[in-house]
Amino acid sequence: MKNKISPQVQEMYDAVPKVILKRTIIFLSIGIMLFWSFSALEFHSINQNGLQVVFNILKYFVWPDSQGDLSIFQSIVASFKYFLSPSSYPEFDSVISRYLFSLEDYHVPYLMYETIMIAVIGTLFGAFLSIPLAFVSSRNITGRFVSILGTFSITVIRTFPIFVWGIIFIKVKGGPFAGVLAIGVSSVGMISKMFIEAIEDIDKGILEALDSAGCTTLQKIRYGIIPQLSANFISVTIYRFEINVKNATILGMVGAGGIGFTLIDAIGSFNFGVVAVCLWGIIPVVLLIEYFSTRIRTKLTTGE
Amino acid sequence: MTNFFKAVYNLIKRTLAVIKDIFVPGKIIIKDGKEVYPPKPIGPYVVIILIIVVYFAAKATDFSIPVLVRRMLDFKFGPFSLVKRYFPPDWSFWPEIIDPLLETIQMSFLGSFLGAVFALPAAFFASSNINKNKILLTSSRLILSLFRTLPIIIYASLFTLIFGLGAVAGTIAITLFTFSIVSKMLYEKIETVDLGAFEAIQSTGASKGKSFITAVLPQILPSYYSMSLYSFEINIRYAAILGYVGAGGIGFDLDNVMKNIRLNDRVVVILFFILIVVVLIESLSRFLRGRLG
Predict the structure, then answer these.
(1) Which superfamily does CATH assign the domain made up of A108-302 to?
(2) How far from chain centre, in Å, is Cα B267?
(3) Residues A139-157, buried b or exposed e (16+ Cβ, 10 A)?
(4) Contact, A187 vs A122, CB < 8 A?
(5) Domain ranges in chain B?
(6) pLDDT of A42-82, one tens digit each?
(7) CB atoms within 10 A of CB B290
(8) Can you state the angle between helices A144-159 and B267-292, rounded to 10 degrees?
C-alpha cells in the first residue's frame, strides 16, 4: 500500500536539507574519541577493598565518631559540653565530632573562617587587579594590538592551574597569605575576561549625550561609564567569590592556607572521621554562599 | 577667637550634614515647591561592612601590602627568584609529557561525555515545570547542589581510595562534576522553554517521558550540546590538576617537576603545553558552539 502525499508536502520534504552525512561524521568522530579515551583507563588497578572504603566513607560521613566507644547521643552531648567550656572536658579528646564545634585554632570553624577570609580578600584583590587589565585589553578603548596582547596575557593567567600560583606565591609568605595571592591572581583570568565583555558593550550614545550637555571627563566617567558597568562588575565579582571559596578549600594542599591541608592529610591517612568533619564544615558554608550569591546576582541583573 | 570657634563649629556641622546626607538623605525641595525623596542608599553601608570584613580578613590571613611589596622586590628569595630556576627551560623534555597530556584530554573528554549523558535524565527530574512531584523535585535538586559544593579535586582524592591511583578515579570525578553542573544549567534551560507542545502531546495520552522526548528535547538540544562542549572546555583545566592527588593526567608531572629542584627547568615546558592544549580546545569549542547558535 502506498501512502499518497500531496505534491506540495512532497516538495517540502525534498527541500529539507540532507544532514545524514554530517551526522554520520559527527557520530563517528565522537565514537572514535570515546574509544580512544577508554584506552586511557586501566581498570586492573581498582582497589579490592573499594566497596569497603565507600561504606566507611559513608558511615563516617553520617557519623564521624563511628570508631569510638561512645554512642551517638553521648558523643553529641560531649561535643556540646566541649563547645561550652573546652577546658573542663579534657577526657573527650578522642571525640572527633568535637572538632566541628570547638572554636579553638586549627579546628573546623577556625579553618573555615580562614578559608572564607582567603576567598574574600583574594577576590577583592583579583577584582582590583582586573579593572586596569580589563580596560587595557578592551578593543574599543586601546585598539587592536594592545587588546590582543592583553587578552593573551589573561589567557595565560587563566590556564595556569591554581596550584602553580599557590606554589609561586609561597615564596612571598607561606600559609594563608600565599592563598590570598594565588586566589587573587588566578581570578584575574575570569574576572577580567567578563569585565572586558562588559566594557566592550558600553553604549557610546550615552557618552555622546553627556558630551553634548557639556560634561567634563570626570563627570562622563561618573554618570556615563560607572552606572553602565557597576552592576555587571559586582555581579561577576560575587560569582567569582563563590568559585573562590571552593578554590580556597583546596589550596591548603600546596600549603597555602585554609582547610585543604587538614582534609587532604586526613584522606591520605585514611582518617575518615576527620574527613567527614571537614566535609561537614565545607558543605553548608558553600551551599549558603551559593544561595546568597545567586539571590544577589539575580537582584542585580533584574534590578531590585 | 570666637570667630575661629564659630568657623570650626560650622565646618563640623556641615561635614556632619554631608555624612548624614550620604547615609540618610532627606527630602529635596525643587523650585516649584514639590518634594522629592531620593532612593534609599545601600552603597555606603555596603562599603562600611566591606571595610570591616576586609580588616578581619587581612588579620586572619596575615595579608599586608608592605610585606607583599618587600617580597616581590626581593629578587633573591622572593617569587621572582623562581625565574632563575625555571629559565632557560629544558625543551628536550617535551616528548615525555605528550602521553600524560593526551591522558588529560582523554580523561576530560570521557568524563564530560558520560557526565553530560547522565545529566539529561537528572535535569528531567529537577526541572520544576515538568516534574510536578514536590518531593522528587526537591530531593533531586538537593542532591545536585550537594554534588556541586565540593571541588573536583576532593572527589578525585576520595575516588583514588576506591579505584586506586590512576586515570579511572580522575575520570569518575570529572564525570560527577560535569553531571552536576550540566544538569543544573540544563534544568534552568528547561524551565524557560515553551511547554505548549509538551502539554499538547500529553493530552493525546502520551506518557511524560515520551512527550518530553518529542516536544521539549528538540528545543533544548542545541543548548545541551553547547553546555556539554563548554564543560569539556573547563574540564581540561580541572583535569590538569587532578594529578596532584594521583588521579591521572599531567598534574602528576607538574607537581613532580615543581617540587624537585633539579627538574625545575621543565615547569615552563609543561605549562606551555597545557596552554597550547587549553587554547586549542577552547577555540575548537567556541567555534562549534558558535555553529550551534
Answers:
(1) MetI-like (1.10.3720.10)
(2) 25
(3) eeeeeeeebeebbebbeeb
(4) yes
(5) 2-63, 93-292
(6) 766 555 677 777 888 888 887 777 666 666 677 677 667 76
(7) 9
(8) 110
A57 lies within 8 A of chain B by CB = yes
User: Where do the domains of chain A lie?
Assistant: 108-302
DSSP string, A110-178: HHHHHHHHHHHHHHHHHHHHHHHHHHHT-HHHH-HHHHHHHHHHHHHHHHS-HHHHHHHHTTT-TTHHH
Provide the grid cell at B291.
Answer: 555553529
Q: Are A167 and A248 in contact (CB under 8 A)?
A: no
pLDDT tens digits along A213-255: 888 888 888 888 888 888 888 899 999 999 999 888 988 888 8
Domain B93-292, what architecture? Orthogonal Bundle (1.10)
Distance from CA of A91 to the nearest CA of B (A): 30
**Residues of chain B neighbouring A117 (CB-CB closer than 8 A):** 56-57, 60-61
Tell whether A177 is within 8 A of chain B (Cβ): yes
The closest alpha carbon to A294, from A239, A244, A236, A240, belongs to A239
ipTM of predicted assembly, 2 dp = 0.83
Among A177-186, A234-243, B258-267, the least confident range: B258-267
